[in-house]
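Example 3.2
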Amino acid sequence: MHPAFQGLITIVLGVGGCLGYFWLSNQFLDKVLFPARGKDIGKNINRANMIRPWLFLLPALLALGLYLAYPVFETLRLSLTDRVPIPGGGGAYTYEWVGGANYAQMMNEPKFWEAVRNNFFWLLVVPAMSTVFGLLVAQLTDRLSWGSIAKSIIFMPMAISFVGASVIWKLVYDFRPIEQEQIGILNALVVSLGGDPQTWLTVPFWNNFFLMIVLIWIQTGFAMVILSAALRGIPEETIEAAIVDGANPFQIFFRIKVPQIAGTILVVWTTITLTVLKVFDIVFAMTNGQWETQVLANYMYDKLFRAGDWGVGSASAMVIMLLVLPILVWNVRNARKEMR
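Structure, written as tokens:
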């Protein structure tokens, strides 16, 4: 069967199944469970109306449970067990309870601490630089006649996948022997200035920053769009009053505009922080964690799918979740406060 036809059948069955579920569940609720007849007609209608919203929420709750809650608990279970092959079992496995042994093993591995250190550097650099550049571009293009074009160009990397961006920047950092022509933009520039080409992605410590540039390049567009909207939301009367009082452009920006959009800046910062904590594609595609560029998500991938160590791999996944969870909860609470 053609894949397009299979996809069409899946969509039809999915939509039809949802519509059928809603119709049948409401029929059962109104005709069988709480029929709108008899002496209790009023109570039945009220009871049905109390239950009805949950009928619409039930598919979403089941999907969240299946694709979100269950994987979390299963990962926690795997992190506390060891996957052992059954002798003569034809590739079958059994799981033995080991408690915190996987976490202890993970803590004793230098690669784990290398990943933690590199993630910390990413957290220091990427959210700060992306937010600063995004705010700077939003401010500089706010009053320009061609500002929309500039914003579109800067936002364009957001439409590229992380892997696609990694391939682009890998070509930028490409290295060829001295006797060959350099096709990498950076090395071509260095050679034109009389220098020697460098293997940029293999230089310890600095290669992490070369990888960070890729994510900054992508996330600056996101920060720019959000902060540009926040800047446009500042009342003109406030800025006009500051100008009348003799404030210069720098004072208006740092003392009037930035304090008023501080909440938005913090949301952008924390949103990018969540992306940084889960960064995987860029490191995997460009260095695969070699040359001291390992990060937590790539460490987890190596343990799960290369080493086949499901226990330590799941333990590292739990570490990533624990790092992400507080920031996620904080963002949700702030969003609810702003909605109120």
